[in-house]
Write a structure and sequence with these properties.
It is a single chain. The chain is α/β, with parallel strands linked by helices. Helices cover 32% and strands 16% of the residues. It is built from seven helices and nine strands. A seven-stranded parallel beta sheet has the order 3-2-1-4-5-6-9, sandwiched between helices. It has a two-stranded parallel sheet with strand order 7-8. α1 links the parallel β1 and β2. The chain starts with a strand and ends in a 16-residue tail after the last strand.
Length: 250
Amino acid sequence: MKILITGNMGYVGPRVVRHLRQVFPDATLVGADAGWFASQLTNASILPESLLDAQYFCDVRDLSDDALRGTHAILHLAGVSNDPIGNRFQSVTLDINVGGTAELARRAKRAGVRHFVFASSCSVYGFAEEGARNEQSAVAPLTAYAKSKILAERELEPLAGRDFTITSLRFATACGMSERLRLDLVVNQFVAGAIATGEIRILSDGTPWRPLIDVDDMARAMEWAALREGSHYEAPVGCRRPGPSAFWAP
C-alpha cells in the first residue's frame, strides 16, 4: 500500500508519518512538501523524513504524476495555514488551498487513487455561540483560511464516487508535541509562555472556549479516513465524541 502525505514537513505531518510507519510498517510512505520549514526541528533525534520511502520537494500544485502513480490514499495537509498570512495574501491562499486542493483531487481520481483525505478545519463554523457543532451545522467562516477550507470542501464533494472516497476532516485546533513544533497555536503558546516566563497570558476575557485535538489523534483520524468504508464523502467534525463519522479530542 502506498500513501502520499502532502505538507509532511509542517507541524502535523511528522506525527502523521511516524504514526503511519508504526501501524503500516511495510507500506510505501511518500512525502511532498515545499520544504519551507524543513530546518525547524524541535528536539528531533532523527529527521522525520527518514521514516519515508521517498520525499518530493515541490509546491503541491506542481506535484509530478510519478508521485501519484500506484497510490492508495492521499493525506492532504499542504496549504497556507496561518490566519495573518491568509488575510494579507488572500488570492494566494485561495489559489493554493482551494484551487490546488481541487486540482490535486482531480488528478488523484484520474490516477486511480482510492482515498483522498483533506485536512479541513472546524474554523469553518466561525463563532459557534449556540454550542457544539456537527456535520449539519451552518458554516460561517470569518478568515481567508477558514473560507478556503469550506470552499475546498465544496470543490471536493462532487468528485467523490464509488471508486474515490473523500473525507474532509474538520479538525479542532491542533496542540501537542511534534518534531516541528508550532508555538502560535493556543495551548502550545500557553505552555511555551509558562516555561519561558512563568506566566500564561490570556488575550481575551477568559470566557471563550475552543475545541482542541492532539496532533497524534489527528494522525489516528487520518489513518481511519485512509481506510474507511461507507459513504463516498464525509466531513467529520473534530470537536465532539466519536459517532459513526466523527473524532473528538479528549
